[in-house]
Write a structure and sequence with these properties.
By secondary structure, this protein is α/β, with parallel strands linked by helices. The protein is 57% helix and 12% strand. The protein has 13 helices and eight strands.
């Protein structure tokens, strides 16, 4: 497992994105490794706290333990931050339950719970607010339509309050199943997508997979450039991820083989991971 001692070659891109999100920015992060999620959320929260932002974390208990351990290792006094209302921590499952009416997120309840949490941070004197949430990941396992509705409510709130949001989705970017509409719908309600912890490895893996599926490196490279030029990205994302989505859009019969080969190359080029 990745402890953070060996940083992924392509980590700079998503670290930069999470360090200073702009008001209204709504970022989706895919992950299979909970350590990658904890690392990203810790970066997102720590940079916000250092900048004087209020931070709201809506997480499952295991993930909060992982995140809090990382924040404490950076000498943040979490109890003091919560007393000063700069840090608010909510349980994802119980908070989600408070928002639902007949299985769908209710706008009034959403405003009363999430809107109130942002309002409380503002009232405590914090001009900027950033939030992390994984309620959508819990909800999407049973109802994708309700998930998208919850994301839309978040977007309305972000636009009103100028806050920023990071969403965690436990989805494998090499799983062909998520490209049957789920990932496309998720991307459409986010401004940015973080598909993997190492963009450089992902780029190399997808480039090699394209060459194996579509022909020689030159032909595959030309096709990839055409796909990227013609595919309307639903959110900002690395070219490698856009190339996968474009292949799913233009030549859907190739997607399973493309993803299988890309996964093999991505895993084969992984840097060694060292423990603590």
């Amino acid at each position: 497992m990745w402890s953070g001692h060996v940083e992924a070659r392509g980590a700079a891109e998503w670290r930069s994105l999470l360090a200073a999100p702009v008001p209204g920015q709504h970022i989706a992060q895919l992950y299979t490794d909970p350590e990658f999620l904890a690392c990203a959320v810790c970066d997102f929260a720590a940079e916000g706290l250092r900048a004087g932002d209020a931070v709201i974390i809506i997480a499952t208990p295991p993930h909060w333990r992982e995140i809090s351990d990382r924040l404490e290792s950076q000498r943040f006094d979490l109890d003091d931050l919560q007393r000063r209302a700069q840090l608010t921590v909510l349980d994802a499952a119980s908070t989600l339950a408070r928002l639902l009416v007949d299985g769908m997120p209710d706008p009034e309840r959403f405003q009363a719970v999430i809107g109130a949490a942002i309002g409380a941070a503002r009232s405590a004197g914090y001009r900027r607010v950033r939030a992390f949430g994984e309620m959508v990941d819990l909800l999407r396992r049973t109802d994708v339509t309700a998930t998208i509705r919850l994301e839309e409510l978040w977007n309305d709130l972000l636009a009103t309050h100028g806050a920023s949001l990071l969403c965690g989705y436990s989805m494998d970017p090499f799983d062909a199943g998520i490209y049957r509409g789920l990932l496309q719908r998720v991307c459409a309600v986010h401004s940015d997508l973080i598909p993997a912890e190492d963009y450089s490895r992902l780029e190399e893996a997808v480039e090699r997979a394209y060459a194996e599926v579509f022909g020689s490196a030159d032909d595959a490279g030309f096709l990839r450039r055409v796909f990227l030029a013609e595919y309307p990205r639903p959110s900002a994302m690395p070219d490698a991820e856009a190339a996968i989505l474009a292949a799913r859009e233009f030549v859907p019969t190739t997607i399973a083989g493309l993803l299988e080969k890309a996964r093999d190359h991505y895993q084969a080029s992984a840097a060694p991971r060292f423990g603590d």
